[in-house]
């Protein structure tokens, strides 16, 4: 004859389980630690995103400054080339800027504006 015993067909629990305080504290501490870790990871990702955005803005601004400076240098070069090819342009610009009044004081050896003395 074999061993005789009780066979449990079902087990039910009335009410909610009551765990010892040490187990509850341990579970709460682990959940809190996980939440803090996730929060720190999110903060790091946000800081990295902000840093990347700042870097991108700075790079864009530097590129814009570089482009403006290059355009200005090109314009100066073109103007210089044009003035070297057409020396009369400088005199024409001076005439266009003249307001029609002669200088109040003239020093020795100077001539009236736009009049060449030979």
Based on the model shown, name its key terms.
mainly alpha, 2 helices, 0% strand, rod-shaped, Gp20
Give the SSE map.
Layout: H1 21-85, H2 88-97
Helix content: 55-70%
Helix/strand-derived category reads mainly alpha
Uncertain runs are: none
Tell me the overall shape: rod-shaped
Tell me the number of strands. 0
What value does the Rg take, in angstroms?
44 Å
- N- and C-termini, Cα separation: 146 Å
**Average pLDDT:** 87
- State which percent range the strand residues make up: under 5%
List SSEs in N-to-C order.
HH
- Major sheet details: none
Number of DSSP helical runs? 2
General description of the model:
The chain contains 2 helices and no strands. It has a domain at 21-94. With 118 residues, it is mainly alpha-helical. The radius of gyration is 44 Å and the shape is rod-shaped. Helix content is 64%, strand content 0%.
Summary, kept brief:
This is Gp20. It contains two helices and no strands.
């Amino acid at each position: 004859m074999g061993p005789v015993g009780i066979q449990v067909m079902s087990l039910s629990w009335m009410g909610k389980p009551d765990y010892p305080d040490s187990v509850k504290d341990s579970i709460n501490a682990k959940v809190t630690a996980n939440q803090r870790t996730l929060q720190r990871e999110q903060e790091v990702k946000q800081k990295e995103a902000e840093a990347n955005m700042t870097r991108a803005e700075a790079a864009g601004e530097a590129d814009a400054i570089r482009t403006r400076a290059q355009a200005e240098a090109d314009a100066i070069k073109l103007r210089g080339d044009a003035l070297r090819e057409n020396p009369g342009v400088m005199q024409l610009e001076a005439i266009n800027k003249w307001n029609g009044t002669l200088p109040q004081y003239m020093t020795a050896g100077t001539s009236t504006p736009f009049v060449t003395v030979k």
